[in-house]
TrEMBL record:
This is Cytochrome P450. GO terms for molecular function: heme binding; iron ion binding; oxidoreductase activity, acting on paired donors, with incorporation or reduction of molecular oxygen; steroid hydroxylase activity. Transmembrane segments: none annotated. PANTHER family: CYTOCHROME P450 FAMILY 3, FATTY-ACID PEROXYGENASE. The lineage of its organism: Eukaryota, Metazoa, Spiralia, Gnathifera, Rotifera. Belongs to the cytochrome P450 family. It comes from Rotaria socialis. It comes from the Eukaryota. Pfam families: p450. InterPro entries: Cyt_P450, Cyt_P450_sf, Cytochrome_P450_3A. The keyword Iron applies.
Length: 339
């Protein structure tokens, strides 16, 4: 039933209405809890990748410190100014509706790829057919749960790792084949996700070549104390890819949504001075049987829960609701990216 659903989020919300805030279902033969009762101790979930994920998060968090973000502010401001100039030109000469979502997509990819990740000017705001834009959009159009390999691995979890290795080994062979014979790129198509990962790999390799000691510094993790603070070299590429696609889609969606509601709100810009504060609610714990390795938040139920967002209709744009402190994880903008 879950694989045939057109929208996973809407289907989970419907089942939450029937079965409550916590219920269990099976993805193939793999048990999964669906949760819309927000909690605060994610580290309580036992997973073979839990400690590794926490180590990588600990290593990457300093990258997004206030000081580092301030250093990037001029770069971001410059790209925003370019977008505003583009909008001004469009409204002056064309006098037609503007798809802000598409403009924000190009803006976020411009900032992430051109300035903050790759450091290469790709002119994405003017080149609407830039391959990075197209491949990024295709990544989110592809539902991995509907892929045959994913469904097969869910039915037989022991085959998940071998199937994963086969998929990426095949992709690596195709990448090297195209690199050796470029003309084959006209006949061999890479999956969007793998295409982006391969482009990230190329950029990382270029950076390594430009600094001969980079790889040694990254791989010098023999000391456990050092290893806990840095990413291993093979972890750089998937993390860069993750930040790229997650930051692109979520930021552009949030900006376009806010722009839409702002345009419809007749009370003026003063409503945007509202600042939401987070707090941790009372701890609620739940034990799961050994072997249960999937926890799926029901995002729609959380985002439209009147107990979390106030008595007003959660479907209405009422920014004043954020004057009341909400749970720290009431907003799950990129939860599906990490699951």
């Amino acid at each position: 039933m879950l694989w045939s659903a057109k929208s996973l989020s809407k289907q989970l919300k419907e089942w939450t209405g029937q079965y409550g805030s916590i219920y269990r279902l099976f993805i193939g033969t793999t048990p999964m809890y669906v949760v819309s009762d927000v909690i605060k101790q994610f580290s309580s979930f036992r997973s073979p990748f839990g400690s590794r994920w926490r180590r990588q998060r600990h290593a990457t968090n300093p990258t997004f410190s206030s000081a580092k973000l301030k250093l990037m502010s001029p770069l971001v401001s410059g790209r925003i100014e370019a977008m505003l100039n583009k909008i001004s030109t469009m409204t002056t000469t064309q006098h037609k509706e503007i798809n802000m979502y598409e403009l924000y997509k190009r803006l976020t990819m411009d900032v992430i790829c051109n300035r903050c990740v790759f450091g290469i000017d790709m002119d994405m705001q003017n080149d609407i057919h830039h391959p990075y834009l197209l491949k990024s959009a295709e990544v989110f159009k592809t539902d991995a749960d509907h892929m045959l390999l994913m469904q097969f691995s869910n039915f037989i979890p022991s085959l998940a790792r071998p199937l994963h290795d086969i998929l990426f080994s095949t992709a690596e062979f195709r990448r090297r084949l195209i690199k050796a014979t470029p003309v084959l790129s006209n006949f061999i198509t890479e999956l969007p996700r793998l295409w982006l990962i391969n482009r990230v790999r190329e950029v990382v390799n270029q950076r390594v070549k430009s600094s001969s000691n980079t790889k040694e510094r990254v791989d010098d993790t023999a000391d456990d104390h050092v290893a806990a603070k840095v990413l291993k070299f093979e972890e750089l590429i998937p993390n860069i890819f993750l930040f790229m696609v997650a930051g692109d889609e979520t930021t552009s969606t949030a900006l376009s949504s806010r722009t839409f509601f702002s345009a419809l709100d007749m009370r003026g810009p003063q409503v945007w001075s509202i600042i939401a504060h987070d707090f941790l609610a009372q701890d609620k714990s739940l034990s799961s049987p050994k072997g249960l390795n999937i926890i799926q938040p029901d995002v729609f139920s959380i985002h439209y829960d009147p107990d979390l967002w106030g008595s007003e209709d959660p479907n209405l744009f009422i920014p004043e609701r954020h004057l009341v402190k909400s749970h720290a994880i009431c907003i799950n903008g990129i939860e599906n990216v990490f699951n």
